[in-house]
Design a protein that fits this description.
Blueprint lengths: L2 H13 L3 E6 L5 E5 L5 E4 L5 E3 L2 H30 L1
Antiparallel strand pairs: 1-2, 2-3, 3-4
């Protein structure tokens, strides 16, 4: 019996999803999860929300790694230039 699982989906069908940011990949790309039905979305290349598929999870992981490396490199560069 899967009635408890259908109630959140029914709620979202009636009132709409209640998305919350669950992960900030970059400044512009984020991952979202619906508070009720647990549907996962992400920002695509056009800035629109799209379903978070395994392919988009992999893309977001790579983007996050590149973004973190770049921001760390900029921090180190700014720190070394302020010392000199």
């Amino acid at each position: 019996m899967k009635k408890p699982n259908s109630i959140p989906k029914m709620y979202c069908n009636l009132f709409g999803h209640d998305y919350q940011v669950t992960k900030r990949v970059t400044y512009h790309v984020k991952e979202y999860t619906c508070k009720h039905c647990k549907t996962e979305l992400t920002t695509n290349s056009n800035g629109s929300l799209t379903e978070l598929t395994p392919k988009f999870k992999e893309i977001n992981a790579i983007l996050e790694r590149i973004h973190n490396a770049r921001t760390q490199r900029l921090k180190n560069k700014n720190l070394s230039s302020s010392i000199n």
